[in-house]
Every structure is written in C-alpha cells, then in structure tokens.
Specification:
α6 crosses α8. Strands 6-7-11-9 form a 4-stranded antiparallel sheet, with no helix packed on it. The protein has a 4-stranded antiparallel sheet with strand order 10-8-12-13, with no helix packed on it. Strands 1-2-3 form a 3-stranded antiparallel sheet. The longest helix has about 35 residues. It is built from 13 helices and 13 strands. With about 425 residues, the chain is an alpha+beta fold.
Length: about 425
C-alpha cells in the first residue's frame, strides 16, 4: 500500500510562504538602495568636493559656468520626483528610504532581544520589555549591535565628500596625504546621530518630523497609490487586528485617507494575505492606483487618464531638463584657463589652469601677440594633477615698445582640449 502511494506523482507549486513575495521584494529593494547609496558617490556619478567647493557629476567638477548641465540635472530630478510622488505616493519612504530601513532593523533587533512587544521610543512612555528578557546581557548585546550598525552606516555619508581611496585609507588606518584631519570629527558626528536615531528616534521621525513627507503630500491625491480595504468583506476581520499590529507606523491600514502616515510599505497586505492563505483566499487589503470606487474597467480608464494628466505638465519640463543636461555634457569644458595681473609692476601676469576632471593631464602653453624674446614663461609644459590647479607666471620685458599689445595665451592638453585667453598689455616705456 505504501509503495503504491509513493508512486503517485506530486507537483510542487512553490515552497515560499504565502504573502511573503511583497515583503521579500521590499527587502531586496532596500538592500539595493543601500548599495546604490555607496556606488553613486564612489563611482563619481554624484558627490560634493568640499576642497574645491563644487558638485561632482560623472567625475566632472561642476562650476557656475556649467549652468546647463547642473540646472538640467536638477530639473530632471525634481520633475521625476513629482511624477513619482503623484503616482506612487510615499512608496519611497516604505521601499527606499535609508532612515526607514535602519529603523526597521532596529525594531527587529529590539523585538528579538527584549520581546515581541518591546518598545523603546521618544514618545514619553517607559521602555516596554518582556519579563523573561529583562537581562543585562540582552541590553548589552542590543547596545553593541546598535553601535556597530551606527559605525557602519556612518561611513556611507563620507563617500559623498571624499574620494573612495581616501575613505578606504580612513577605514584601514592608512596614511594618506589627502586624508583631512576633520574627517575623524565628521565621522564621529555621523555615528552619534545615527546611533541616536536607531536607538530611540526611529519611526518617530517618519510620523512627526520628516519634512520630505510633507513635500510628498503636496502632490498626493485620491488617485495616488494607496492601500485599499475591501469593506464588503469586513465581517471577516471583525475581531482581527493583525494588519494593525503588523504596521510599524502604528496606523490602521483599513482607514487610509488622503492625508495619513501610510508609507506604502505593504507589510499590512503581507500580514492579511498570510492570515487568509490558510483558507485559500486573498486578503482584504491590496495596493491600488486610481479611484477607490468603480468598476474594473472604469478604474483602468481613470488610472490611465490620471497618469496622462500628470505627465502632460511634468513630461515637457523633464524633456527640457534632459535637453539642458545633454547640451551641458556636450559643451562641458574639462579645463579652465584664466589670466590676471601678478603684481603692481604691470609686467607680470599669472596664468592659472584648472583641471576639472578627476584624472591627471599634460598641458602646454603658448604665447602670441608679443615679439620673440620679449617675454618668459616659468614653464611652457607641465603636468596637471587630478582636480588641481596650476599657476604659471608670464614675465614681460619692461623694454617692450610703447603701446597696447594684444596678447593671446593658448593652452593645449594631452587629451585634445584647447583653450584661449586674450588680454591687452599696455607698455609704458619711456612714459613718466
């Protein structure tokens, strides 16, 4: 009999627990965002150079003269964010915000070491700890884990102000001439702020203090992505509060209105689906874009119309920003050439060549408009370090014939860049 049963073919549909797909997808996105938070500045895609006082985009220093590139970039970011807010609402908070990711991890560690209902917050209540978990060892492990996490996350902001090799030298305690002494203090401040955040602030910031969410609400409407509750099946959850306990923002997902604290994380949907999976039915909560009432066909048409109406005004502005950004990249000058008087004698000029790229270059200088032998350059060929400036002095013979001389300084880089700077030199030979 047992042999006959063992020969019956069995088809395995899946081993994953029902209702966990959304949860795992969100965890994957959160992990990816943390990786991107490091890769974006480390790759030179975007960061800030505090020494040069400039933004860095695609490993290029962005000056005020690079107006189109920087303005186009910010227009694309701003309009893209508006489209995201108006369509997906606060999905960034629930799926991508590093603050929320750290707060969720801190909640997990707190519940694991101090009890499932443990709570340590700024809301004026005494810490809630399970009786069986009130041990000094648990508190010590929790404190050490928070400190190590703060030390790890505190490194990420450094990548936005220092090159990767400098940050690596800091981590490995290696000597680096570019390693600023203030870096240790900056890192200490970052660690303290993050430690306070994951220890006691957590989602208090999300619910009451986040200005970013206020900005998002300015573009949120009833058609924006939201959690929909199936009221026709309300009898199934008359005595159930599982979705509320699963919400770490402490709201009732069955009562989401236009202005609420929901961050569209989907944990309440996971909880409801897991509960009803035992009965082989879907949960009472789901994500929806568009009107909260109406037939399926009407909802689809409304969704498309709502999306199109929002793209109608943000789309052209986004294209404008993209056009400006592309033109800025095309017209970008990787070097800058300038000339100024060196002293009050009126015979010496200071030539400055700035490298706006984060790679070294070779540069040559040429002078036209002056008679041969009537001037001297400190150097006519020199190396230019990555993102550095070089100053060369031009000495003009004081016995140059009297008059106004049009002088042109030409600079050529090994990468093919050519620059010109024209000025007029007044020789006052024989004049008193």
């Amino acid at each position: 009999m047992s042999n006959a049963i063992s020969k019956i073919p069995v088809k395995v549909i899946g081993t994953a627990k029902p209702g966990f797909k959304l949860h795992f997808a969100r965890r994957a996105v959160q992990a990816g965002i943390l990786v991107l938070a490091i890769l974006i500045p480390a790759s030179g895609l975007f960061r800030i150079d505090p020494v040069a006082g400039a933004f860095v985009v695609l490993n290029r220093q962005i000056w005020f003269s690079d107006f189109f590139l920087m303005t186009g970039l910010w227009i694309m970011i701003a309009t893209g964010a508006v489209m995201l807010y108006s369509v997906a609402g606060t999905v960034f908070c629930g799926w991508a915000c590093p603050q929320n990711t750290m707060a969720e991890w801190a909640n997990h560690m707190t519940h694991k070491l101090l009890g499932k209902r443990a709570n340590v917050s700024l809301e004026g209540e005494a810490p809630i700890v399970a009786a069986s978990k009130k041990k000094a060892l648990n508190w010590a492990i929790l404190g050490v884990s928070f400190l190590l996490a703060a030390m790890f996350f505190g490194i990420i902001p450094l990548f936005y102000f220092y090159p990767p090799q400098v940050v690596w030298s800091f981590i490995t305690f290696s000597h680096d001439e570019h390693l600023a002494k203030s870096l240790h203090y900056i890192y200490f401040v970052c660690v303290v702020i993050i430690l306070l955040d994951i220890s006691v602030i957590r989602h208090f910031w999300c619910r009451f203090s986040c200005i970013y969410r206020v900005w998002q609400h300015s573009f949120k409407t009833k058609q924006t992505l939201h959690v929909l509750y199936d009221e026709s099946r309300s009898s199934e959850c008359a005595k159930c509060n599982y979705c509320v306990t699963a919400c770490f923002i402490d709201i009732d997902p069955r009562k989401t209105e236009l202005y609420d604290s929901c961050i569209n994380c989907g944990e309440c949907i996971n909880a409801c689906d897991r509960l009803h999976a035992k009965e082989g039915v879907k949960g009472l909560l789901r994500f929806e874009i568009g009107k909260r009432e109406g037939s399926r066909g009407e909802s689809f048409r409304d969704n498309v119309g709502s999306l199109v109406s929002r793209i109608n005004w943000t789309g052209p502005i986004t294209l404008l920003g993209l056009s400006m950004f592309v033109w800025g990249l095309y017209s970008y000058s990787p070097f800058n050439l300038s000339v100024d008087r060196y002293d009050n004698s009126g015979q010496d000029y200071q030539i400055e060549v700035a490298n706006k790229l984060y790679k070294p270059a070779e540069m040559s200088l040429h002078v036209t408009g002056l008679p041969a032998g009537s001037y001297r350059l400190d150097a006519d060929h020199f190396g230019l370090d990555a993102a550095k400036r070089k100053k060369i002095t031009l000495h003009i013979d004081p016995d140059l014939p009297k008059g106004l001389h049009a002088v042109v300084i030409e600079a050529d880089s090994s990468a093919g860049w050519k620059g010109r700077f024209r000025f007029e030199h007044l020789s006052m030979r024989g004049m008193k």
